[in-house]
Backbone:
């Protein structure tokens, strides 16, 4: 086909375009795990294609789940920074809300866990094993106490930084 015989609006496919590299995530399972598989660290069971809280079968395979792998390596996927005068005055209530949110999420999603809650010079830092939990914690604190909420997502590292202040 020449340029003149192409229909209007037709764009030929370019073969010289840049292709995106495959995403590399050390903490994602490379292939399907044999079923059932039990995590020796937390007791979660890989069944029906996902990690769940189930009774542990006696003859199950054993491997660490991605959350235990992150905890072992001390490599969080989510950071939630809390700061401000309001935090200092209501720290106990806010931390209780955060722990309650984690308990609810972890009951349904075993890979969503808080790794650490640390005091910093600017406030409190909560690290999580999952970006969705970090986002949920930020949303829960913002919903309960208002304030300023920011999200900074780094897709190359599958990392989320959440900043809340009031």
Residues:
């Amino acid at each position: 086909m020449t340029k003149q015989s192409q229909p209007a609006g037709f764009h030929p496919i370019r073969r010289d375009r840049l292709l995106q590299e495959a995403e590399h995530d050390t903490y994602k399972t490379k292939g399907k795990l044999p079923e059932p598989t039990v995590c020796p660290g937390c007791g979660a069971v890989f069944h029906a294609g996902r990690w769940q809280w189930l009774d542990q079968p006696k003859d199950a395979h054993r491997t660490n789940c991605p959350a235990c792998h992150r905890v072992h390596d001390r490599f969080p996927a989510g950071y939630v920074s809390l700061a401000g005068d309001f935090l200092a005055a209501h720290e106990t209530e806010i931390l209780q809300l955060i722990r309650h949110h984690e308990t609810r999420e972890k009951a349904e999603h075993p890979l969503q866990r808080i790794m650490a809650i640390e005091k910093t010079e600017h406030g409190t830092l909560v690290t999580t094993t999952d970006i969705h939990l970090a986002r949920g914690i930020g949303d829960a604190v913002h919903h309960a106490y208002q304030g300023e909420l920011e999200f900074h997502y780094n897709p190359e590292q599958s990392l989320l930084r959440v900043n809340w202040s009031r």
About this structure: The mean pLDDT is 90. Residues 37-64 form one domain. The radius of gyration is 22 Å. DSSP finds three helices and nine strands in the chain.
